[in-house]
């Protein structure tokens, strides 16, 4: 099924073998559900007022802009501070019916930052079956029937989660109840995790990092797509490194020539991949979301592909640099 919707003429498609409806650009709430995150320029984006009420208002404003534009997919996680809570409140206040939006969330990390910018740790990872059961209950209590996709947060081969039959049985039970199951990936061995997920035959979707700097998961994501999984791309602007604040020269020049911002070109690169089902915007404001949505109107061509191919970094170096980003 495919139809135009929203002011940007966004197309609605189904995600992989699921019946979940998405648009090319979705909205991820990692940057606005908690006061600190690893995105460049957050002091400029958010200022000093980051109490719960201010962040809730900001989240609602971005959600309003996304809905008005026709965006159909919103992604949260248990570790995104109060993102699920903010989303649940907005869904109720705006009278959004279950199924009007594809709402996804993730389990495995727990937010421990205490709503502080200077917290020693902001999240703790645990991919155990006990955490799956507890966090799914917490997510369901907030999002209810709006939840349509539940994902392992940052699944890796070395974590052992693909060999944990108790976890896999728990995910199978969710799937039998009508909740699609997926995973997100992280690190220089994303491709290995994607291939393991495909081999299980269990997962409906995969959410991975792919951008002009970090392309190493591309072939594995193509294989996942061919196997019927829906592919969701996160970090398309590399935590701010592919925005106007830090865009490499070739990207900045290409954006100027096309009359858009660098982030729009960076997200257009994702949308040009035949395996990409949806790319998540991590916008912290309605204005940033509008800039991101311009990606759907950027005509990707061989010239852009050739000019920007040289931006690709060694995966290990890319992930080391990401790990060094400060929470701010």
Automatic annotation (TrEMBL):
<dbReference type="InterPro" id="IPR023210">
    <property type="entry name" value="NADP_OxRdtase_dom"/>
</dbReference>
<dbReference type="Pfam" id="PF00248">
    <property type="entry name" value="Aldo_ket_red"/>
</dbReference>
<feature type="domain" description="NADP-dependent oxidoreductase">
    <location>
        <begin position="59"/>
        <end position="303"/>
    </location>
</feature>
<protein>
    <submittedName>
        <fullName>Oxidoreductase</fullName>
    </submittedName>
</protein>
<dbReference type="InterPro" id="IPR036812">
    <property type="entry name" value="NAD(P)_OxRdtase_dom_sf"/>
</dbReference>
<dbReference type="InterPro" id="IPR053135">
    <property type="entry name" value="AKR2_Oxidoreductase"/>
</dbReference>
């Amino acid at each position: 099924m495919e139809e135009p919707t929203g002011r940007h003429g966004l197309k609605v498609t189904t995600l992989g073998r699921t019946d979940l409806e998405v648009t090319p650009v979705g909205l991820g709430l990692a940057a606005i559900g908690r006061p600190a995150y690893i995105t460049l320029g957050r002091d400029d984006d958010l200022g000093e007022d980051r109490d719960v009420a201010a962040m809730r208002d900001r989240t609602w404003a971005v959600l309003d802009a996304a809905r008005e534009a026709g965006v159909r997919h919103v992604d949260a996680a248990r570790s995104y501070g109060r993102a699920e809570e903010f989303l649940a409140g907005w869904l109720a206040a705006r009278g959004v019916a279950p199924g009007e939006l594809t709402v996804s969330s993730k389990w495995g990390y727990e937010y421990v930052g205490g709503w502080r910018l200077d917290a020693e740790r902001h999240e703790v990872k645990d991919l155990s079956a006990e955490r799956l059961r507890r966090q799914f209950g917490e997510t369901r209590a907030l999002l209810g029937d709006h939840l349509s996709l539940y994902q392992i947060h940052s699944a890796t081969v070395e974590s052992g989660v693909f060999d944990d039959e108790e976890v896999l049985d728990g995910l199978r039970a969710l799937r039998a109840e009508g909740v699609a199951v997926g995973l997100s990936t992280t690190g220089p061995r994303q491709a290995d995790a994607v291939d393991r997920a495909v081999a299980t035959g269990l997962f409906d979707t995969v959410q991975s990092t792919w951008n002009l700097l970090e392309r190493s998961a591309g072939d594995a994501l193509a294989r996942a797509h061919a196997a019927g999984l829906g592919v969701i791309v996160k970090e398309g602007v590399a935590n701010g490194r592919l925005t106007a604040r830090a865009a490499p020269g070739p990207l900045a020049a290409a954006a100027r020539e096309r009359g858009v911002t660098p982030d729009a070109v960076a997200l257009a690169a994702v949308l040009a991949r035949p395996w990409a089902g949806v790319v998540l915007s991590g916008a912290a404001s309605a204005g940033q979301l509008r800039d991101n949505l311009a990606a759907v109107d950027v005509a990707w061509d061989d010239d852009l592909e050739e000019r920007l191919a040289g931006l690709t970094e060694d995966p290990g170096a890319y992930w080391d640099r990401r790990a060094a980003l400060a929470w701010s």
